[in-house]
Design a protein that fits this description.
Blueprint (H helix, E strand, L loop, with lengths): L3 H12 L4 H17 L8 H14 L14 H15 L6 H12 L8 H14 L2 H14 L4
Length: about 150
């Protein structure tokens, strides 16, 4: 279950008209913090992000499942399932939740290190086209220094 504070921050983002990916970012940030503070571990940065996105969808963030070609069919199917779960407010199974937490306890914590996050960001950027990277940089420049 995500923390109340995280859900509230995501709701505030939604009220301000921010995109679903920005709202989901709150959940990803929470997950990175959990790994850093030793609550559980992850095998990779990608896994920490995936857990955060899954929590976001289940909390009601209208974040669409990834498009064809980007990820496996299994991931897409799970994302769709998470979206449906988020639409209705069902209480998560305590025994299943506990099992998942115990499994993650054995994983390393290096996936949430600044070095690992930087490596993942660079790798993700490399996968995008030059035009997409350029547009993203221009968008970031517009919001920089209070402009």
């Amino acid at each position: 279950m995500p923390e109340k504070e995280t859900v509230e921050r995501a709701r505030r983002d939604a009220r301000e008209g921010k995109s679903p990916s920005t709202q989901a970012g709150e959940f990803v940030r929470e997950e990175i913090e959990h790994v850093r503070e030793g609550k559980h571990g992850v095998r990779s940065t990608k896994q920490a992000i995936a857990i955060g996105l899954s929590k976001a969808r289940r909390a009601g963030v209208k974040l669409a499942a990834p498009k064809k070609g980007r990820v496996s069919a299994r991931t897409r199917k799970q994302a769709t399932r998470d979206l449906r779960k988020g639409a209705r407010k069902a209480k998560p199974s305590s025994s299943r939740s506990r099992a998942a937490s115990r499994a993650l306890k054995d994983e390393p914590h290096s996936g949430a290190s600044p070095k690992a996050l930087a490596r993942h960001a660079k790798q993700a950027a490399r996968a995008r086209s030059k035009r997409a990277r350029s547009q993203s940089a221009k968008r970031a420049a517009r919001t920089r220094r209070g402009r």
